[in-house]
Each structure stands twice: as structure tokens, then as C-alpha cells.
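Deliverable D5.2: sample structural annotation.
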Amino acid sequence: MNLTLPSTDFGVDIPFVQHLGLVLTVCANGASEVRLTPRPEFLNSFGVAHGGVIMTLLDVAMAMAARSELMHTGAVTIEMKTTFMRPSVGTLVARGRVIQNTATLAFTEASVFDEHDKLCAHATGTFKYVRRLVSGTRQMHDLNRSSVPVAPD
């Protein structure tokens, strides 16, 4: 699969990512960059980007870094640790990268920078590579069954 960047198409339909308006600007060679201009409904009571929005931005950046080497494969979050360092204000950029991967796992990290290129948050995460399910048959328990139909590679 080839993506023309920048794009709001992440190579798979993710309604929450579309709702947030994330834009993928880099996705190659174990690296990614995802941009977000938070709308008012994405802010917390202090008027800065909500921590959940920041964690989603980090999660997507790490997953796309993992997928950049195997775009036909999905990457699901196994674990994620996040540190918030300063309020995230204005247009935000998350840069992700693969630290190490195996045949089934990607060990990643990502950082979020504000509109002044100041570091706001950092995360590390582990992602499991999974084969993509055939469209329309996906159910939560399908991810655990070995007889699930899969899309051709």
C-alpha cells in the first residue's frame, strides 16, 4: 500500500482518528510524523489539549512507525507508558520511531511537540503485528480466533 503524504488516510478506516483530524505527514523506514490542530472540544478545563488526545496522538504515531515497515499488517497496542512534561498548546506534532522490532512485535517511542517545537509529552509502546481481517467480518473476539478469515497479503 502506498500513501500520498500528507494525508488523513492512514491506510485503514479509523473513525476516531478521522474525528480528531489527525494528519499523517511521514510514514517510512520505521518513522512517522502525525499532526493535530486541536479543536475546542479537545481541550481540558485549563484550555490545553486533553491528556487523552495527547495519548491518542502518541499511540497513532508509534503504531504508524511500526506499520511503516509492514503497511499491509496491522499493529495493535500491547502496552504504552506516557510522560507529560508541559501543556500542549496550538498545533501539535508527534514524531514516532521504531526502536527495535521482531517478527511479531515492535518496540517504539514517540514525542509530542507544540507550535514552538517544545517537547510536551513522550511515550514508549509495544505493538503486536497482526494480519488484517477481511472487511465486514471483524468482531472483538475475532482477534483471538485462529480460524478468522484474513485479507490476502
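Annotation notes: The CA atoms of residues 58 and 121 lie 8 Å apart. The chain has one domain: 15-144.
The annotation will be released with the project's public dataset once the embargo ends.
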